[in-house]
What does this fold into?
Amino acid sequence: MSAIEPTEAQRFPIGRFARQDRYTNAERAQLIERLNAQPTHLAAALSGLTDTDYERPYRPGGWTVRQLAHHVADSHVNAYTRVKLTLTEDSPTIKPYRQDAWAELADSALSPLISLTLFTAVHERLVTLLRTVTDEQAERQLLHPETGPMTLGQLIALYAWHGDHHVAHIREVRETR
It folds into this structure.
């Protein structure tokens, strides 16, 4: 029996990330406000879900709600570190991580609410920091060994998309239970 291939909408419910070359100050401000709202959106998406719901994948072969909640926290902890490296070092090379392997570690069996708390705390610090980024700082570069160079502005856009992307996955599970 062959596995059912997920649709594009299941994989990317808000669309694929489209990186711009540059982001204006106003665009960055909007992206930062999206980041600021993500803990509230994640809390709402998780609210009222049961342990059974936490074990449901968002698509065939996809991560469970539990894994998604832990992944988004893990990823945004890395984002916070990457922002600080970019602001304090010249063109830092950031360390990629094996997100699928992280999703299988023992701490990913904890309640998703643990990661909601972590995500909320990290976002408070991240958003506070990002609100002080100047136009010049937004053009600072970092190097991701797998995806190449990007600016801090592009990194902000990526994580604004990333959080919204995974909250949308959890919302899809809510709507289909």
In short: The domain at 25-176 is CATH 1.20.120.450 (Four Helix Bundle (Hemerythrin (Met), subunit A)).
